[in-house]
Amino acid sequence: MKKLIVALLFVFVGSAYAATDYQCVNDCTEKGYMYNFCKEKCSYDNTPQYEKPKQTDFQCMSDCQDKGYMYQYCKERCSY
Questions:
Q1: What residue spans of 16-70 are helical by DSSP H?
Q2: Residues 54-74: tens digit of each pLDDT
Q3: Which of 36, 63, 69, 76 counts the most CB atoms within 10 A of its CB?
Q4: What's the angle, vertex CA 42, arms to CA 41 and CA 46, rounded to 5?
Q5: Whole-angstrom Cα distance, residue 61 to residue 23?
Q6: What is the pLDDT of residue 53?
Q7: 29, 38 in Cβ contact below 8 A?
């Protein structure tokens, strides 16, 4: 029974990022952003099965604020 649950978990977790544009991920990481941030932003069919706490890409925050944008706006744009 445990093996079945683990197998189903991998199926559902794996499908959460089923449609990811890896060229987008490549371009994003080359700009210095974190891989997980890029993968989240470059996925267009990701339907998470649970609510996870948001994380922030601090390079994105720095770039955003350097352009003169407000902290809260940048935090929303740079969180995944």
A1: 22-30, 35-41, 58-66
A2: 899 999 999 999 999 999 999
A3: 63
A4: 80
A5: 22
A6: 86
A7: yes
Question: Phi and psi (nearest 5°) for 57?
Answer: -90, 110
pTM comes to 0.51
pLDDT digits (tens, 9 = 90+) for 8-27: 444 444 444 468 889 999 99
CA–CA dist 35, 47 (Å, integer): 18
* Token pair belonging to 46: 């990701």
Q: Which two structure tokens, joined as six digits, stand for 39?
A: 């993968």
Question: Given this model, what pLDDT does residue 18 score?
Answer: 62
Q: How many C-beta atoms surround the C-beta of residue 71 within 10 A?
A: 10
CA pair distance 21, 27, nearest whole angstrom = 10
